[in-house]
Amino acid sequence: MTTIRVADHPLLDAVVFETTFPKPIAELPSPPSLLAWLKGGEGAPLASSDDVRAAVRDLLRHGGFKPTGRSKPASEYLVRASAEGTLGTINAAVDACNVVSLHSGLPISVVDLAKAKAPLSIDLAPAGASYVFNASGQTIDVGGLVCLFDANGPCANPVKDAQRTKTNDETAHTLTVIWGTRGLPGRAQTAFDWYRTLLEDLGATVSMVPPSTA
Predict the structure, then answer these.
(1) What is the DSSP secondary-structure string of 90-158?
(2) In sequence order, which residues have a C-beta less than 8 Å from that of residue 143 and are 6 or more positions away?
(3) CB atoms < 10 A from the CB of 31, how many?
């Protein structure tokens, strides 16, 4: 059973869960409803706003991180891409993540549990911490940013996830973190409830990962 330690944080309201897909995610095409929501669509239970964006940025600032420029929350990139019509389909698992993040305004991290090594935890990254976030070898300085850690260090956060634990075509078992904030009470749980429905419609099994402070 997956376990995770979550350090005390005055703003963080994270929802963490694991998902087992019925087949590798590359073999899961998105249904038309999911594709419609990537373009905006109607009927989503949540909608992003300036207030949501401000609250998420406050969450990221808590440890001294500056969520501006190329270090903006990942959810903001999705809003822009959708508005420009450039947010395309990848596979149903990734599309579901993007849809929920787009409409909720909350950043979401998804890592391949076959690549992440226990123990797992969520905490602020120390000053100077960094990791490679794409196949080109580009790095991000994550010092002061709330991050998901595995045994090898930080591997995901609300801005950019580490390349070493990202999903690929063969991924079938994932850990997801919805980076909710106490400045938006109940929003992360509402986002999860919708997300869970989307994943279960794909035949996936979803299990909550309760946090531990020990």
Answers:
(1) --HHHHHHHHHHHHH---EEEEETTT--S-EEEEEPPTT-EEE-STT--EEE-TTSEEEEETTEEEE-S
(2) 64, 65, 125, 126, 127, 128, 129, 130
(3) 13
CB-based contacts of 127, cutoff 8 Å, min separation 6:
143, 144
Could you report the per-residue pLDDT of 93-116, keeping only the tens digit for each? 999 999 999 999 999 999 999 999
* Identity at 20, one-letter amino acid code: T
φ, ψ for residue 196, nearest 5 deg: -60, -40
Domains of the chain: 4-212 (3.50.40.10)
Beta-carbon-side half-sphere exposure of residue 41 (alpha carbons within 13 Å) = 17
Residue 43: band (very low, low, confident or very high) from pLDDT cuts 50, 70, 90: confident
**pTM, rounded to two decimals:** 0.97
Query: 21 and 93 in contact (C-beta within 8 Å)?
Result: yes
